[in-house]
Amino acid sequence: MRIIAATNRDLKKEIDNGRFREDLFFRLSVFQIELPPLHQRTGDVRLLAEHFINVLSPKMNLRGVTLSDECLKVLNDYSWPGNIRELKNIIERALIVTDGVITCDDLPVGLCMAAPHPADERKFDLATMERNHIAKILNYTHGNKTETARLLKIGLTTLYRKMDEYGIPK
Q1: pTM
Q2: Which residues contact 147 (CB under 8 A, 6 or more apart)?
């Protein structure tokens, strides 16, 4: 039997401070792989982001999703305090809100600090965001309105009213 374990702590320091057993360390450390944090491996950001897109897109009924160059630059420049798990969460969030090409607008607020161009101001309109979100959830549920209403935590009649209001096909 082989045990594979991972940590983000310096186990030798933990042993010195009495927070990790030395005998357990020697049992586990037969073969060690040092993997630097993501912010030191910017070349891996694109590969990992594309991997997460390829794995998560089919689960969300999405096809052909790509990353914009601007978005990739932002992802490469980010410090990644949450490492690969944070990247996965950001990609998953972006897939929920994207229109097919992940841009800075699809990333969490604060990750892209560039000022919007006047032509992009419509994207900040609450009605536009709500319409796009409803359409994406409908796509996610394959058009199942009851499931869409449940996920949105609104009543079915409210969903139908909003679909009429925003011109979303039934």
Answers
A1: 0.59
A2: 141
